[in-house]
Specification:
Blueprint: E1 25-31, E2 42-43, E3 49-50, E4 58-59, E5 79-83, H1 94-102, E6 108-111, E7 120-127, E8 132-136, H2 139-142, E9 150-155, E10 169-170, H3 175-180, E11 184-186, E12 189-194, E13 196-199, E14 217-218, H4 224-229, E15 240-247, E16 253-266, E17 277-285, E18 289-293, H5 299-302, H6 317-332
Parallel strand pairs: 12-18, 13-15
Antiparallel strand pairs: 1-5, 1-9, 2-3, 4-5, 5-8, 6-7, 6-9, 7-8, 10-17, 11-12, 14-17, 15-16, 16-17
Amino acid sequence: MKHVRFPIPVEGRGLATNARELVMITVAGEVAPPLEKSGPYRIGQDGVPRVLPGTGGIVLSHRVGDPCVGLAADHVEPAVSIRSDRRSGGVGDAANQALQTFSCVGNFAVVMSGRAIGKKGIVTGKHGGIDNVLVDFPIETMRRMAIGDKVQIYAYGVGLRLTEHPDLHVFNASPRLLQRWGLRMEHGRLRAPVTHVVPARLMGSGLGKNNVVKGDYDIQMSDPAAVKRHKLGTLRFGDMIAVVDADNRFGRSHAEGWTTLGVIIHSESTVAGHGPGFVSLLSGPAKRFELVRDARANLANFLNIRPARAPVDRLWLPAREAEERRRAARRLQPAGDLP
């Protein structure tokens, strides 16, 4: 693994952090199988039952940098999903909770068993509820991987602080990600490239937790006017976005005058209150941020994983199906009934 260099703490160029104080610790899991409940149907926000692929497994068709809206899927996780089912310390999920807590976006991962042993990947997110950690690997590696392969993560980033700006709180981010994001302090404000700015009123599933170091929360797509206004149809896996009027210091809360920055980690969902997943990375007073719209602000670009695809505006699944029904009705309408 290459040595990680940290930015020089110069105002306007880099951010001073406590990175040299941090502990690197290994956590591990296995490639998680997709899971299905007793019934295959998900009841959509529009009342329509659908059978769709969802969380877990090895997703060969979508990686960071690809669209996360416009898929025939529900909560799909790009590339590889891992979790630990090992019992330890008398608590059934203790190992997996450590995997969730200590893994940070931008950490390196290595395959430890199977036909892809020794191949490297990068952590791109963590998904609450199912409690999976998401890791991107090159497509050639994923084709050789199998459910159950062991993956070890070099967890590094928990406890990270911006030492000269204690009112800006960091979560789930490796020092390497902060370095490559292009963040810089200018005139007392943190200049941050983001692809989208989303109001906190659109945030749904994942609210009510007392921390943000595990899991995510979702952007609701059920209001067509809001989707259009905020260009949510162009969201991609790995997009760096801002949620305004959101205080994530001690959990996910709506609070005017606060802003939270983070990354999109899973796809749209048809289920009420759900949608593209967002993992929190930075939170602080809104007046301390200068948000810069930049379509290149994606993990795939920042971490040299692959070039992110150009944003394309897509409808979420219920809207696509409704539009298809309207077009079909117009085609079937007798010519004499046309206006």
